[in-house]
Write a structure and sequence with these properties.
289 residues; alpha/beta; six-stranded mixed sheet; two-stranded antiparallel ribbon; binds zinc ion
């Protein structure tokens, strides 16, 4: 969050949706009809093995933006399917490059701290066997769409954008999920890019609540559940997606923030582990619900 409006790049006000195609091949739609119907809740006792490298509807999109023909139904639905297990966490250190994000009087820059936190979060997740993909590794500033495209190219992924606020009680952490998006009415099962998050809102809420719960155990004064906001970065992300916002850049001593990083990382890792058995994307190949 920025000092000026309290919702800088995290929450977009009045920013018209960009219709940037997902792929350079010309389609402006995400094709994951199968995935939409296939998101199923399973019990923790069920398998969490990594997915095989084929048969995901999202596999029609590659990180390089190449487009292929729609992929139709995979194997029949199975409660025991190992496809769609949660394996990947896409970490998005917000801002970067010329976009410094929020700045504190002590010279603390959000873009800088977000990257520092990402290192800790990555380490904690990798220790639990997650594959971590970062939207930026250094001080650059990918666009919102570029960052979402990285997430949308993955299978079995969740997305976490990391922010450091200029507001809020120092030492607290909030999780946001995107607010409701207009229902998808296309008959062909294609999801507009700027509503990619719509089919995932329920899972995002669940994931957000789990992470917030872990954070609140450690950072007293944080909310009990995830909050809802209009978040540009999340809207175009076709995966369970949350924003994590740490307070705040206003602290006088950067060490106050540094000391929070391991706890934030541990809480996010625990939230992801708790969410893992709930995230199962079986392949049914059906139409939209
Ligand atoms: Zn921010």
């Amino acid at each position: 969050m920025a000092p000026s409006d309290g919702f800088d790049m995290l929450v977009v006000v009045g920013n018209p949706p960009r219709r940037k195609p997902l792929t350079t091949g010309g389609t402006a739609f995400l094709l994951f009809a199968s995935a939409v119907t296939a998101l199923a809740w399973q019990t923790p006792s069920q398998t969490q093995q990594p997915a095989s490298a084929s048969a995901s509807p999202l596999a029609s999109t590659t990180p390089t933006g190449q487009s292929t023909a729609p992929i139709q139904a995979g194997p029949p639905p199975s409660a025991q399917t190992q496809q769609g297990a949660l394996n990947i966490v896409v970490l998005d250190p917000a801002h970067g490059g010329i976009d410094l994000g929020s700045r504190g009087t002590g010279g603390i820059q959000e873009s800088d701290i977000a990257l520092e936190f990402a290192v800790e979060v990555r380490r904690a997740l990798e220790q639990q066997g997650f594959q971590v993909v970062q939207t930026r590794q250094g001080n650059d500033n990918p666009s919102f769409d570029d960052r979402s495209a990285i997430a949308n190219a993955q299978r079995g992924a969740v997305f976490i954008t990391l922010h450091i606020a200029s507001t809020g009680l120092p030492g607290t952490v909030r999780v946001y999920v995107n607010s409701d998006l207009p229902p998808i009415t296309t008959a062909n099962g294609l999801i507009p890019w700027d509503r990619a998050q719509a089919p995932f809102l329920g899972l995002s809420r669940k994931f957000g609540d789990l992470v917030q719960g872990m954070l609140t155990q450690r950072f007293k004064g944080s909310p009990d559940t995830a909050q809802t906001a209009t978040i540009r970065q999340l809207r175009t992300t076709a995966a369970p997606a949350i924003a994590v916002e740490v307070s705040s850049v206003v602290v006088n001593d950067r060490a106050d923030l540094d000391h929070m990083a391991p706890g934030v990382a541990d809480a996010i890792m625990r939230g992801a582990v708790a969410f893992k058995p709930l995230y199962v994307m079986a392949s049914t190949g059906g139409a939209l619900p």
